[in-house]
Amino acid sequence: MAAGVTQRATRSRERDHRLWERRIDAVEETYQAYKALASARRSAVSQRERPPDETSSWPLREEAKAAGVKLALYGALETSVAFEEAFNAWAKWYMEILGLDVYEGAQDRWPLVEEKAKKADAADQKLFEALHLEASLRPHRRWPWSRGRH
């Protein structure tokens, strides 16, 4: 009887630990992907020109999107919401900068690009804060007598 309880508790701890590792991996991948997107955005805005190739940020976008899927599976709801907001803000900025070729007087549209970049920066900052909080949380403990002991 005692061996069965011990085995069940061990399996439960191992499962919790695997989920914790997956959660931390998702947090790390999301953080790295969004740091790269933010860097590419800052570079484009500071140079006041569109990236040389319209797909230059697209591979970064795919990395961020893949990391976001893992984050949605293993992370907290608040972190997933912050991810969605950051992704949407990046997409709005990216579409604005790609549209510069379409409009005449593209240089006149730079204030709008910069405004969208600021909104994306703010959304990224919110995401980074949520990721830091997510990484600082301890794995969930199942047993009532283990509460408060980390």
Q: The CATH topology is what?
A: de novo design (two linked rop proteins)
Tally of structural domains = 1
The largest sheet is: none
Strand content: under 5%
Contiguous uncertain segments of 5+ residues: 142-150
Kindly, what is the distance between the CA atoms of the first and last residues, rounded to a whole number of angstroms?
28 Å
Compressed to H and E, one letter per element, the order equals: HHHH
What's the alpha carbon Rg, rounded to whole Å? 21 Å
| Helix share, percent | over 70%
The geometry reads as rod-shaped
Level-2 CATH architecture: Up-down Bundle
Total count of strands: 0
Counting H and I runs of at least 4 residues, what is the number of helices? 4
Output the structural class. mainly alpha
The CATH class: Mainly Alpha
Mean pLDDT over the residues: 79
Main attributes of the structure:
150 residues; single chain; de novo design (two linked rop proteins); rod-shaped; mainly alpha; 75% helix
Any chance you could write out the topology, listing elements then pairs?
Elements: H1 2-47, H2 58-74, H3 77-98, H4 110-136
Textual characterization of the structure:
The protein has 150 residues and is mainly α. The chain has a single domain (2-139), classed as de novo design (two linked rop proteins). It is 75% helix and 0% strand. It contains four helices and no strands. It has helices at residues 2-47, 58-74, 77-98, 110-136. Helix 1 (2-47) packs antiparallel against helix 2 and helix 1 runs antiparallel to helix 4 (110-136). The protein is rod-shaped, with a radius of gyration of 21 Å. Mean pLDDT is 79; it is low at 142-150.
